[in-house]
Amino acid sequence: MSRIPRIVILGAGYGGIVTAIRLQKELNYNEADVTLVNKHDYHYITTHLHMPAAGTDNPENARVNILRLIDEFKIDFVKSTVTQIRPQEKKVLLEEGALSYDYLVVGLGGEPETFGIPGMKEYALSIRSINSVRFIREHIEYQFARFKREPNRKDYLTFIVGGAGFTGIEFVGELADRIPPLCKEFDVDPSLVKIYNIEAAPTALPGFDPELVEYAMNVLRNKGVTFRISTAIKECTPDGVILATGEQLKAATVVWTGGVRGNHMLDEAGFETMRGRIKVDAKLRAPGYDNVYVLGDCSIVMNPEGRPYPPTAQISMQQAGVCAHNLVASIRGERLKDFEYKSKGTVASLGRGEAIGIVGTRKIKGSVAAVMKKVIDVRYLYTIGGLPLVLRKGRF
Amino acid sequence: MSRIPRIVILGAGYGGIVTAIRLQKELNYNEADVTLVNKHDYHYITTHLHMPAAGTDNPENARVNILRLIDEFKIDFVKSTVTQIRPQEKKVLLEEGALSYDYLVVGLGGEPETFGIPGMKEYALSIRSINSVRFIREHIEYQFARFKREPNRKDYLTFIVGGAGFTGIEFVGELADRIPPLCKEFDVDPSLVKIYNIEAAPTALPGFDPELVEYAMNVLRNKGVTFRISTAIKECTPDGVILATGEQLKAATVVWTGGVRGNHMLDEAGFETMRGRIKVDAKLRAPGYDNVYVLGDCSIVMNPEGRPYPPTAQISMQQAGVCAHNLVASIRGERLKDFEYKSKGTVASLGRGEAIGIVGTRKIKGSVAAVMKKVIDVRYLYTIGGLPLVLRKGRF
């Protein structure tokens, strides 16, 4: 009797968890051993993290226990941190132990890309996990409490967000919404609070429709956000940032949303990478390794014009569908599918009741877009956990 | 026509606000000008501050807007900080401006007494105002968030409370109640959290019935509190405390409840003081100044055995009654009253559902005492603000 193939999935982000759920449905009994490895015992909804980071929603609404999403009789779950991938040996090392595989799915997620800006890694916060967003929320509240003890420290009430991409804009929208209740709670004059959103590119939300970008910036300006576009940050210090112009902005809080790179473990594993990402083949495999699938922030997929798609939850989930299909097909000796990205639209929230988006070729904004954003959130919960999850985490 | 006398009340704590409310009732139209001066536009319920400090209640429940308590047509309210008292000139200086008086009521409250322990003033937190308790609450939460980023920093989860007097014990009880929900919220193993209550005296709650003290300590030990009694703190550092034994306890949070002294402005004003307190005469006046009444933490009243009563809310409020009476009597040329303290009982809370107390000669403990504590709280709200205030702030 031949041994059944062993599939190891690294990471329970969008790519990993959706791959696991699909495999669980599609594989027959004893067709493969599937093991999902994740640092935490929960999956988190990265696209939602800007809300708990600002404190406008509870972090519990941004995470789901993994054992509620997978069937432990069909999939093994190992809570551990991956420390090394050894593709030659078909092995991954964990903080506690090691796992061998026949097929590997790498969905480890990305890391902040600070582009070598001095001090950014050390002093800026980033929105990347439940732990990090709880920290940011507490850090923000703490600055208000500190200010009441040292009222000459205006820098406690200055918040700098580096990067006006998707995450930066969505976070700034929530933060601006959070300021009035915080001012009320701590008896702080709202006019003392400053929010700066700084972007090196010549526009906020690069790649987005300019008319919608203009709309978004106006919404955020009206909430008190000051934009500094076409302005690079030269250095981040414990006291704030220094701009390329030489100007210094003092702030006790700097949140960096300016870039995402892939995972350092992929560089270390000997794969050919670009900023920690692997340019996958049409089947989503790492070049040279027919048994290694790479998803999400760890992967690069080119659009028809030959430029990489930005890494989003949407593309990760679509990749996961193809990845699961290809794994099953490989095991069964069937034909593999090519991955092709189909955009279902993009919506960026701008805080309570406001958003902008593109659905098909249609531009949407304001409350219509905000409702659309909610629909997308709910659709995702439904995809991974069905109606019970929608009811538990849907915030109605 | 003779000028009407001017009464200035400094501080809207228990002594000041109750004096103001009584004067408002007892004085006839145009009998006196009364001005109440306070740093904030709210009165706070000091005996309740241990709860918002630990985060077990909202700070809003511990404060009341002053203009809801006094009638502005009868009493002027000045929101300002007192900077100097000049009893010879019958004048007080404020941060903005100055006030002359014929009668002065000093209810400025106390300050932490650190007994010269090095570093205590600089590095320890104290439970003394709405701003300070919001800070302590945020500081505690922040340590949990920090620990998740730096899991080797066990000192983030160590909380040292210096002093096991009334405030120390009540705070420790609330803090112990707050730990389990914080551990749940931040995914922290509760066994990593340490609470130390350190007291230099040979017993917790010095002066309280030993049987009740024993009961209280057992309740708190079962909630996870470690007591170090008969143990002096030699020094407070940014990293924790050093005990007289030389032992070092590392902690990111030290809350000092070990002592209260009077107000430094009384020392500076040339009154005869003991640790910032004035030993008042039988009518509650500062020796040598028949027109200066001193209440609460700023005053010393001796018990029949010739030892000072501990400063409590209860004694302040009783003083306020006599003070108001004596002010009215002075103005009318009537006879002044002597102050005599009548204990109505004392209850110390030990967190949710637990307390100890003495009512008359009866010892009470457990849920009976906890209910009694609530009754006392409600009675106070009723005294100052009537039924509407009880309903607004009563936490039912």
From TrEMBL, chains A, B:
InterPro entries named in the record: FAD/NAD-bd_sf, FAD/NAD-binding_dom, NADH-Q_oxidoreductase
UniProt entry keywords in alphabetical sequence: FAD, Flavoprotein, Oxidoreductase
A molecular function (GO) term: NAD(P)H dehydrogenase (quinone) activity
Cofactors, names only: FAD
Transmembrane segments: none
Residue ranges constituting the FAD/NAD(P)-binding domain according to the UniProt record: 6-320
GO biological process: aerobic electron transport chain
The keyword Oxidoreductase appears for this protein: yes
Annotated family: Belongs to the NADH dehydrogenase family.
Protein name (record): NAD(P)/FAD-dependent oxidoreductase
